[in-house]
């Protein structure tokens, strides 16, 4: 695999397609062999836009998480969330679901039988720092998020902070996650925090970001030290900015778990596979979901190694 092209101090990271359940394919943008993380963001899936008229849409049975937060952001469609805390929430475009796994949680994600014709959104993970990853699980739904409009550009802060806008979502490290919508062809300069590293993806349309042409299917890593970034579009476009202070704790990521060592992952897998149904003692039971919980895949035959944010082994 060739090294992604570098343009100035930016790096273009092409995504790849991954099946999610039986009916959904996502473009996985992080982790990438050239860049494991952006701030504490350690996983980015972009799905759609898909036509799900007469189709089931997203159907993901109960499965576990630990050591992370999940962020679900829709621009089209509807997803029904259930988790082992007893949360039951429909998420629709422009609203945020944030689930903090802490030591362990299980959840399911399904498109309900009656649903819009389209499905389009992001699912992202935030790695929890050491002082938060063993804590209790929680779930948040935020129907109102801070935004500002500058001509044909609307910026909505989904997670963390950007300039003077701060999301109400509870996070455990300095972060930025923001949607930038251009309603027409326009240029715009976005102020940034030079202490953060950043990445940008395009959900729809075409854009030029820091002089780099960007289309859906790739993530542009922008590095740190920037106090602004120039954006330009030739028509309507929807972008998403990821940022945060560099995350210095090496991680082991495997299946739905984020840990610090091979033994962390072995323990989480064993505790998910124990009990009836799966994982009931550590991860809990997702009530109200008729689907059977997902079994964990077999572990690799070699020990899993912790990697830093660049992908280097610990």
UniProtKB/TrEMBL annotation:
Keywords: Iron, Metal-binding. Pfam families: Pirin, Pirin_C. Fe cation binds at residues 63, 65, 107, 109. CDD domains: cupin_pirin_C, cupin_pirin_N. Binds 1 Fe cation per subunit. It comes from the Bacteria. Residues 26-126 form the Pirin N-terminal domain. Residues 183-275 form the Pirin C-terminal domain. Its cofactor is Fe cation. GO terms for molecular function: metal ion binding. Belongs to the pirin family. PANTHER family: PIRIN, PIRIN-RELATED. This is Pirin. It comes from Actinoplanes philippinensis. The lineage of its organism: Bacteria, Bacillati, Actinomycetota, Actinomycetes, Micromonosporales.
